[in-house]
Amino acid sequence: MALPPRSFLCLRHGATDWNRQGRFQGRTDNLLNSDGVAQARAAALRLTGVAIGAIVASPLRRAVQTAEIVGTALSLPVVVDAGVIECDFGSLEGQSIRDTMRKHGLTALEQLVSILPADGEPWPAVSERALRCVTTWQERHPAAEILFVGHDAVMQAIAQRLCGGFFENRYGTPFRFARSGEAWAVQEIGQFGQI
Hints:
By secondary structure, this protein is an alpha/beta fold. It contains six helices and six strands.
């Protein structure tokens, strides 16, 4: 699979009640809670110093809500693309992440990809479709900085594929997947767009 030709931005949606309860959320279409709305507003402030040309969001409501809050603050429309929808966790949807880890003897979140159920989405497919989505939008907007608003598993799959591992991904925190030659790095966007 071809890698994106240049750097791009990603933003994990704000928190939902299921996030706070530590459940696998996947394709379950929950809304942001009040914390999540505040996190989306804080993300919008961080992104005010970035010259974003397009915002692409997962179709799940928590991502669309986050993207719309950012889009309103930056006077940009939001386009929805299922290429950055969350991983389908199949029969794990709604289950406790902590209990699942205990049951399988896992000690790190990244180990969860080894026990994903057959009725869900295969882990390699997550990064393949997400990176295909990123590349497609970059080809459509060859000069624009594009923000993709999505989900933790999608961003972790991208990071694993591009950078070789997972990273600490907090709700409503924007990151740049920065390309330098053939090397990639994940960089947090600070206040007013500074890295």
